[in-house]
C-alpha cells in the first residue's frame, strides 16, 4: 500500500524532466526579452550553474550554437508547448529552473488497514450506496482516491536540502468499501474540553454514515470515555432527524469528559453493541486512548475501524495545519480584546485591560488573537519566558506604553509564566496539570509597580475562556468540520484504522494516530516568524530563548 509503483515513478520522473526543460526554456526566453536594457542586480550574481549555462546559450552572449544545442532547444520547445497545452493558465512562460531544489523520493506515512488482518466486503463504492432499493439515488463519486494519491508534507524547500519528502495519504472515498455499509454500526464519542465545531462534526459523521453509506445504527457515547462504562450515561442513538440544526449550537450534544478511560470496558462496549466503526473526537490525550483501542482491536482481530478527529482550541496537535475550532476561538477572542481596549481607553488615567485566553502548553490562540486584533501591547505565552523588570521587563514596557498613549492592553495565555509562578503539581481528571493564574497575579503586580511610581492605574481583568470555546463554529470552521466528518467516514468505510483525519497543506489527509500523537502537544517556535510578527504588533521587548527541539515539538505549520 505504501510504495509508489514503477510506472507512477516513471511518469513522475518524466513530468519532473518536462518541468525542468520547460522551466529552463522559459528562463532563457525571459532573459532574451530583458536583454537590451539589463543591468546586473545582486540576486543574479548567485546564479545556479544551470542558469549560468543557460545564459551562456544566449545567441548574443556566446554565438556558437552547435547542432546538439539546437536539438536540445527543439526538445525543450516541444516539452514547453506540451506543458502549455496542458496548463493553459499561462504561468508556464514564467517558470525558472531551480536546480538546487530537488525532490527525488517521496515516502508515504502509511495508514494501518483492517484488511491486514481481516477480510473485507470489498463492495464498489457509490454515493448513496446504502439506498440499495433506490438505485436512482446512487451516483458515482466525482473523484475516488487511491493509495497513491498523496499530499506532500514538506512543502518548504531550501537549496541543497535532502531531495526527499514525506507524504500523507489523501483523504476521500475509495473505489471499494471494506465494510458492507448497510451493516455498519458506528459509535461517536467526544472527549476533553469543549471546542467550537464539536456538534458540526457529530452531525457530519451521522449524515455521511446514513445518507452517503446507509449505515444501520449510529450511537453517541455520552460524557467522553466514561460513557463506555458508566451505566448512568447510556449511549443515545443518533439519527438524521436528531442532528437537524445541531450545527448552530455550541458544545457537544453527547457531552464530553476527561478521565475514566478503561480499555477493557471500552472493548466490552464495542463488542456488546457490535460496533464496527468508532469515531473519537478529541485532543492528543483522546487520540492516545484511541490508539490503544485500535491496537487492542487488532490484537483481538476485531473488524473495528478506529478513526480520530483532532479537536482542541489550543491548536497544539502536531502535523495538521490547524485543529477545528481554533479559527473560531481566535475570532471570538476579538470581542474580549476589544472590550479590554475600551475599558482601558476609558478608565482614566492609565487604564489597563488584561485578557486571559486558553492555551495550556502553547500560546497559539493568544498570538493569533494578538495579531488579528492590532490593539494588544503585550502578549504573554507559555513558550516565551515572562520577564517583569529590567531592560526587557514587561512592567517598564507597560510604563512606556502608558506614557505614550495613556492605556494598554495585555493578552495572557493561560499556560504563561510558570517559570515565575512555579510549576503546578495538581492535575485534573485527564492528568493535565492545573496552571497558576498569571493574569490575576499580573493585575496585582501592575498595581503595586505603578503605585510605587506614583502613577495610579485602573486594571480590568477579563477571562472569556469558557465563553470562547462554547460558541458555535464560525463559517470557516463549519466548512472544515464538514470536510473532516465526511472524510473520516470515507476512511473508516474503506477499512483504514488507527488513523486521524486532518488538514495538511490545506488538503484533507489521513494520518496514523501514532504519528499524530508522537510530538503532540506542539508549541509555537519562539525563534520563529510568528513570534516575530507578534513583537512587531505589540512592540514589546523580546524575551524569547531557544527551546531544545528534542524536548518539545515546535510547530512549523501554517496555522490559519
Ligand atoms: N495516554 C493516555 N492513555 C489513555 N487515555 C488517555 C491518555 N491520555 C488521556 N487519556 C484520556 O483521554 C481523554 C481526554 O484527555 P484530555 O487530555 O483531558 O483531553 P484531550 O484529548 O483534549 O487532550 C480522557 O478521558 C483521558 O483519560
Ligand atoms: O477547565 P477544563 O474544562 O479542564 O479545560 C481547560 C483546558 O481546556 C483547553 O481549552 C483545551 O483542552 P483540551 O484540548 O486538552 O481538551 C485548555 O486550553 C485548557 O487548559
TrEMBL record:
| Any Pfam family the entry gives | PFK
Q: Which UniProt keywords apply?
A: ATP-binding, Glycolysis, Kinase, Magnesium, Metal-binding, Nucleotide-binding, Transferase
Q: Where is the composition biased (Polar residues)?
A: 48-58
Q: Does the keyword Magnesium apply?
A: yes
Region annotation (Disordered) maps to 33-64
- Name all Rhodanese domain ranges: 206-237
Could you state a single Gene Ontology molecular function term? ATP binding
Under catalytic activity, the entry for this protein gives:
beta-D-fructose 6-phosphate + ATP = beta-D-fructose 1,6-bisphosphate + ADP + H(+)
Q: Name one GO cellular component term.
A: cytoplasm
Do you know which NCBIfam families this protein is assigned to? PRK06830.1
Name of the protein: Rhodanese domain-containing protein
Supply the source organism for this entry: Diacronema lutheri
Amino acid at each position: 500500500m505504501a510504495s509508489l509503483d514503477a510506472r507512477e515513478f516513471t511518469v513522475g520522473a518524466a513530468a519532473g524532466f518536462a518541468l525542468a526543460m520547460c522551466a529552463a526554456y522559459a528562463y532563457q526566453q525571459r532573459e532574451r526579452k530583458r536583454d537590451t536594457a539589463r543591468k546586473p542586480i545582486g540576486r543574479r550574481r548567485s546564479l545556479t550553474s544551470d542558469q549560468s549555462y543557460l545564459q551562456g546559450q544566449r545567441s548574443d552572449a556566446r554565438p556558437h550554437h552547435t547542432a546538439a544545442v539546437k536539438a536540445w532547444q527543439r526538445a525543450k520547445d516541444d516539452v514547453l508547448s506540451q506543458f502549455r497545452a496542458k496548463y493553459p493558465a499561462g504561468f508556464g512562460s514564467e517558470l525558472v529552473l531551480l536546480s538546487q531544489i530537488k525532490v527525488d523520493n517521496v515516502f508515504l506515512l502509511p495508514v494501518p488497514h483492517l484488511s491486514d488482518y481481516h477480510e473485507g466486503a470489498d463492495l464498489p463504492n457509490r454515493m448513496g450506496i446504502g439506498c440499495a432499493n433506490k438505485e436512482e439515488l446512487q451516483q458515482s463519486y466525482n473523484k475516488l482516491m487511491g493509495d497513491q494519491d498523496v499530499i506532500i508534507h514538506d512543502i518548504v524547500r531550501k537549496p541543497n536540502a535532502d531531495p526527499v519528502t514525506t507524504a500523507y495519504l489523501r483523504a476521500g472515498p475509495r473505489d471499494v468499501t471494506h465494510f458492507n455499509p448497510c451493516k455498519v454500526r458506528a459509535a461517536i464519542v467526544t472527549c476533553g474540553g469543549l471546542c467550537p465545531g464539536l456538534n458540526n462534526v457529530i452531525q457530519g459523521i451521522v449524515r455521511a454514515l446514513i445518507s452517503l453509506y446507509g449505515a444501520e445504527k449510529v450511537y453517541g457515547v455520552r460524557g467522553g470515555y466514561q460513557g463506555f462504562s458508566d451505566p448512568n450515561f447510556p449511549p443515545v442513538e443518533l439519527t438524521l432527524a436528531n442532528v437537524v440544526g445541531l450545527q448552530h449550537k455550541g458544545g457537544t450534544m453527547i457531552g464530553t469528559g476527561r478521565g475514566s478511560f478503561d480499555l477493557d470496558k471500552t472493548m466490552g462496549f464495542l463488542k456488546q453493541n457490535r460496533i464496527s466503526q468508532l469515531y473519537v473526537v478529541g485532543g492528543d490525550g483522546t487520540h492516545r486512548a484511541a490508539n490503544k483501542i485500535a491496537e487492542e482491536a487488532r490484537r483481538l482481530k476485531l473488524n473495528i475501524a478506529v478513526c480520530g478527529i483532532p479537536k482542541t482550541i489550543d491548536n497544539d496537535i502536531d502535523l495538521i495545519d490547524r485543529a477545528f475550532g481554533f479559527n473560531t476561538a481566535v475570532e471570538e477572542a476579538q470581542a474580549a480584546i476589544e472590550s479590554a481596549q475600551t475599558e482601558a481607553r476609558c478608565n482614566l488615567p492609565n487604564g489597563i485591560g488584561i485578557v486571559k485566553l486558553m492555551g495550556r502548553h502553547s500560546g497559539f490562540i493568544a498570538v493569533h488573537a494578538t495579531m488579528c486584533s492590532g490593539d494588544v501591547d503585550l502578549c504573554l505565552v507559555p513558550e516565551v519566558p515572562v520577564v517583569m523588570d529590567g531592560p526587557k521587563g514587561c512592567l517598564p514596557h507597560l510604563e512606556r506604553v502608558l506614557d505614550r498613549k495613556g492605556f494598554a492592553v495585555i493578552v495572557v495565555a493561560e499556560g504563561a509564566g510558570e517559570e515565575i509562578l512555579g510549576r503546578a503539581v495538581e492535575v485534573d481528571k485527564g492528568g493535565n496539570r492545573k496552571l497558576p493564574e498569571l493574569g490575576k497575579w499580573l493585575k496585582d503586580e501592575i498595581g503595586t509597580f505603578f503605585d510605587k511610581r506614583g502613577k495610579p492605574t485602573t486594571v480590568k481583568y477579563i477571562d472569556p475562556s469558557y465563553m470562547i470555546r462554547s460558541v458555535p463554529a464560525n463559517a470557516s470552521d463549519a466548512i472544515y468540520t464538514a470536510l473532516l466528518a465526511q472524510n473520516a467516514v470515507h476512511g473508516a468505510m474503506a477499512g483504514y484504522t488507527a488513523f486521524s483525519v486532518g488538514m495538511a497543506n490545506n488538503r484533507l489527509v489521513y494520518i496514523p494516530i501514532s504519528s499524530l500523537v508522537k510530538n503532540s502537544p506542539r508549541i509555537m517556535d519562539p525563534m520563529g516568524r510568528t513570534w516575530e510578527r507578534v513583537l512587531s504588533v505589540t512592540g514589546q521587548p523580546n524575551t524569547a530563548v531557544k527551546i531544545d527541539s528534542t524536548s518539545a515539538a515546535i510547530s512549523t505549520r501554517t496555522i490559519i
